[in-house]
């Protein structure tokens, strides 16, 4: 067997592997053509949510998020907003504090990912607010939420769900290339992965980024120990 035969076999193997991978993705995304209605749970009891925002120099946008959180239909007495001002050099902390949020200012240039910030925050949160909240929502500072966001999260918690991901979509998909790609990413994840798995009654492929809720008891003992860039 000469070198060209070896290269041909390698190429055939690569294309066969890619073909199987493509076939798998085709099969798992077929349910996108089926209608699916998310089951709803009862509105009561009302869970206590800690809404956590990890922000670094987000003074231009964090006010929009906090304002949208304040406009939610979920009772204000059942959630509080916690802002991690992570290595900020702008007015992020002052804006959040002025809008009634709990603000935790962190300065650690040696550990600068969102995972480190959340780990640092939750160590303090459980020491200072133990037993006050049963659920947590993690959301990015440049997001806004729908008025019924926590209402739906509460219903899912009452169904017994311990980890829930919200319906995430780009705010301004036509404003630029980056915004368009970001919106396309969320669309593909929602329709190509989350939707088919929900129809099959399977757990989510991944949880991370923004707009997700979890039972605080899941991390009360171990803390937050992920180290990815965006969580």
Q: What does this 3D model show about the protein?
A:
This protein has a six-stranded mixed beta sheet, sandwiched between helices. The chain folds into two domains: 149 residues, Spore Coat Polysaccharide Biosynthesis Protein SpsA, Chain A (Alpha-Beta Complex), CATH 3.90.550.10; 38 residues, no CATH class. 40% of the residues lie in helices and 14% in strands. The longest helix is centred in the first third of the chain and has 27 residues. The protein has 231 residues and is α/β, with parallel strands linked by helices. It is built from six helices and six strands; from the N terminus they run αβαβαβαβαβαβ. The protein is globular, with a radius of gyration of 21 Å.
SSE series: HEHEHEHEHEHE
| Average pLDDT metric | 87
Radius of gyration: 21 Å
Q: Classify the beta-strand content into a percent band.
A: 5-15%
Instruction: Specify the number of helices.
Output: 6
How many domains? The number is 2
CATH topology of the largest domain: Spore Coat Polysaccharide Biosynthesis Protein SpsA, Chain A
Largest sheet: 6 strands, mixed
CATH homology superfamily of the largest domain = Spore Coat Polysaccharide Biosynthesis Protein SpsA, Chain A
* Termini separation: 49 Å
- The outline comes out as globular
The strand line-up of the biggest sheet is: 3-2-1-4-6-5
CATH class of the largest domain: Alpha Beta
pLDDT under 50 segments (min length 5)?
Answer: none
CATH architecture of the largest domain: Alpha-Beta Complex
Category by helix and strand content: alpha/beta
The number of strands is 6
Helix content: 25-40%
